[in-house]
Design a protein that fits this description.
Strand content: under 5%
CATH topology: Recoverin, domain 1
GO molecular function: odorant binding
Mean pLDDT: 76
Oligomer: single chain
Order of helices and strands: HHHHHHHH
Number of strands: 0
InterPro entries: PBP/GOBP, PBP_GOBP_sf
Structural class: mainly alpha
Number of domains: 1
Pfam families: PBP_GOBP (PF01395)
């Protein structure tokens, strides 16, 4: 498991590599990476387990994945796209989408939002997780990016 310092260093390095493809949105990306590192450090995330959760055939209802589900909600709350009660702050979501500068990522977000904005249900961390699963199913760009990050982080733990 990575400590906070290792998480920040890794996510920072990973972010620098990704920024080449999303340069106009580097401030938002950096903020997301920072929050992901903070939440991972606080919650003791096992990145290999989180990567496993998204593999074909994984039983995402298994309680062993609960930490990963809560990690997503933690980041969403820090990004101000989810309220403390686990419901989506659509004004916050739209603000981020409206602020995207990279045309491909903005178009992708605008395509996926209508499909995933109603994803909720469950308790505690499930609403954030359910929306994230929806995005992963409907956006090959998002899925590729997230899986690369999780696999790279799993190799460091």
């Amino acid at each position: 498991m990575l400590n906070y310092y290792q998480s920040v260093v890794f996510l920072g390095a990973f972010g620098i590599c990704v920024v080449a493809g999303i340069d106009p949105d580097k401030k938002l990306l950096a903020e997301g990476i920072k929050f992901a590192a903070e939440c991972a450090s606080t919650d003791g995330i096992k990145f290999g387990l989180c990567a496993e959760m998204y593999q074909e055939g994984a039983n995402i209802g298994d309680s062993k994945y609960d930490e990963c589900k809560c990690w997503i909600s933690c980041v969403a709350k820090k990004m101000k796209v989810m309220k403390e009660d686990g419901t989506w702050d659509m004004d916050g979501v739209k603000k981020i989408i409206d602020g995207l500068q990279h045309p491909e990522w903005k178009a992708e977000a605008e395509k996926v939002l209508p499909m995933c904005k109603e994803a909720s249900g469950g308790t505690k961390c499930d609403p954030g997780f359910n929306a994230f699963v929806c995005v992963m199913k409907n956006s090959e760009k998002a899925k590729t990016y997230v899986m690369q990050m999780l696999k790279a982080m799993a190799g460091l733990t």
